[in-house]
Design a protein that fits this description.
There is one protein chain. The protein is an alpha+beta fold. The chain has a single domain (2-91), classed as Alpha-Beta Plaits, CATH 3.30.70.60. Helix content is 23%, strand content 38%. The chain has helices at residues 16-32, 72-81, and strands at residues 2-10, 36-52, 55-67, 87-91. A hairpin with a 2-residue loop joins β2 and β3.
């Protein structure tokens, strides 16, 4: 299973009860394809950078989930066919790179080149 992050934008005019229904449907879609939700973030109603289907605002959900890589295409297709989702974006988050410790080379001792008289 691979980890992915999904951003889902819904129309802003739905009621809180309808939002819960949308979240449940989205969770069922991911589960049906063998995935599981790891973290849910509800970003609420936000102003969009550009209009999407004449909406200037949208309700945004950002979820982290796991799913098999071969099922990702099916998930993308299911999201594209869902007319209630204005836009969705799925990305594979980058793993943080381990920080290399600088090698501890012994410092060269400073030798004084003072002239001797």
């Amino acid at each position: 299973m691979r980890k992915y992050e999904g951003l889902f934008i819904f129309p802003p005019e739905e009621t809180p009860e309808a939002w819960k229904g949308e979240e449940k449907r989205l969770e069922e879609t991911i589960s049906r394809l063998g995935g599981r939700i790891l973290e849910r973030k509800d970003w609420g109603r936000r102003l969009l950078g550009y209009p999407i289907r004449k909406f200037r605002e949208g309700r945004m959900l950002c979820w982290n989930f796991e799913i098999e890589g071969n099922q990702l295409g099916e998930l993308r297709k299911a999201l594209a066919l869902d007319e209630r989702i204005l836009k969705s974006t799925l990305v594979k988050p980058q793993e943080p790179k381990p920080v290399k410790e600088p090698s501890q080379k012994p410092r060269a001792s400073k030798v004084s080149h003072a002239s001797q008289s």
